[in-house]
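dude i think i finally got it to work??
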Amino acid sequence: MEDGERDAVRAFLAGVRVGEVRGGVVAEVTSRGAAVVLDGFPSRPVGAVGTLDLTWGPRAEVGLVVGQRVMGEVIGVDAGRGEVRMSTAATRHPLLWRFLRGLRAGRVLNGTVASIESFGVFVALDEGPAHPIHPGVGFVTFPELSWRYFEDPSDVVRVGERVSGVFLQFDTTNGEARLSLRALLPDPFQEFADVAVVGRVLRGRVTKAVPFGVFVEVADGVEGLVRSTGTAVEGPAAPGDAVAPGEGLTVGEEVAVAVVGVDRARRTLLLSLVRAPGEPGEAPGTGRPPARW
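look at this
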């Protein structure tokens, strides 16, 4: 691009604002989306509609072809690349887009569980328009369903169940309101961290064996890692033993562990196996069973 053309592009982009609607004609279609010659700047295509910013709907309805006239909402202006990023989904479904864009992080939304999929849970919201494709405008990823570990999301929610969730963000790619159900629930890890002291001995149940150690549940919804021998783990040194290869601990087995470190921000708990003389599981030097939180 020559200096004169570059200056002309910059001057045009200076007048483009995010949120406004612009029209143009599709000049090229690739696997990455479409290049658009925008109204008011016919010399070269500076508009760009990415594949994820197309109208949500059946493929036959959302595909663009060269020569087609399109309208799109400006979602970004990249002066360095000389490009105006546009979304045709915003103009095809203006009521839904306006509703989602008007939501603010932290707001509580209510609705009904509409579908449980392998990638998350759809929620039909009480307010706002319906989604043109998905069973609900609200969407909850599995980690945002609960603070506690679960193997099947149906153990947490069921289709038809009424739920409330905190709005996290507007997913412009899928036209969804990302929600968190767990944000409205007390975090058992933080409650545990309030009373956890390094060196405190607890009893727990082995829940999972992994190449770098085993996880032990020491309270409802709170699991900690007992690292494998030789595994580098961020945190203070263990006061007791690590898990040696071939240790033979099995899922469901009860063990005595000591708190090595608690990281509130990362919600991680490091533990060490306690091996005391006398009765198995005895707290070191006490002759008593270890405490349970």
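Residues 230-241, 278-293 have pLDDT under 50 and may be disordered.
im so relieved honestly
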